[in-house]
Amino acid sequence: MRLTNAMERFILHWGEMGARWGVNRSVAQIHALLYLSPKPLNAEEIADTLVLARSNVSTSLKELQSIGLIKVTHLEVGDRRDYFEAIKDVQEMFNIVVEGRRKREVDPTLSLLRDLSIEADADTETDPEVKKRIADMLDFLEVMTHWYDQLRKLPNSTLMQLVRLGDSVVKMLGFSKKS
């Protein structure tokens, strides 16, 4: 596959951002390539296009599949190679990433904070201010995850309408923006 300048810049940037998000650069670059590609690609095409070792591509594809950002497809009868394509819907991709991060980061933190809150309440040695800070953090995360859960129930088109309202909602509710 021949990359245009714009494609190459996108793939390089996605790789840099992936590294900042805690994702291997190669994994992010492969995801970017598959996202941009108009057709599914096999591992050899990916390796050749991005000049990556075939083993690196194979490992990266497995990781992307486990996350749910790409899927395997087959193109022709008799062609035994696996072809890969990325989720093209940006909102669906975003939802997959956010849900994964929630399971890995937010849910364990909520569980810990619930345990700490119970433990601290029973502990007479814990400073009341410390108890309050733990309770405040727990309350905030519970409210935000509940809100997120409600938003996830909305159809994507409705959610996008809500998000696009942005400043209009703030103005309608009579709140002023802080500088």
Structure summary:
The chain folds into two domains: 5-86, Arc Repressor Mutant, subunit A, CATH 1.10.10; 90-172.
Task: Summarize the structure in words.
The chain has 179 residues and is mainly alpha-helical. The chain folds into two domains: 5-86, Winged helix-like DNA-binding domain superfamily/Winged helix DNA-binding domain (Arc Repressor Mutant, subunit A, Orthogonal Bundle), CATH 1.10.10; 90-172. The chain is 70% helix and 6% strand. It has eight helices and three strands; from the N terminus they run H-H-E-H-H-E-E-H-H-H-H. The protein has helices at residues 5-20, 25-36, 43-50, 54-67, 90-122, 128-153, 156-165, 167-172, and strands at residues 41-42, 70-73, 83-86. The mean pLDDT is 93.
Give the terminus-to-terminus CA distance.
Answer: 47 Å
Helix content: 55-70%
Mean pLDDT: 93
Domains (count): 2
Give the topology string: H per helix, E per strand.
HHEHHEEHHHH
* Approximate strand percentage: 5-15%
Largest β-sheet summary: 3 strands, antiparallel
Q: Could you name the ranges where pLDDT drops below 50 across 5 or more consecutive residues?
A: none
Spatial extent as radius of gyration: 22 Å
User: What structural class is derived from the secondary structure elements?
Assistant: mainly alpha
Strand sequence of the main sheet, in spatial order? 1-3-2
Choose one word for the global shape: elongated
Number of strands: 3
Number of helices: 8
Organism: Methylomicrobium album BG8
Keywords: DNA-binding, Transcription, Transcription regulation
Domain HTH marR-type: 22-81
Protein name: HTH-type transcriptional regulator
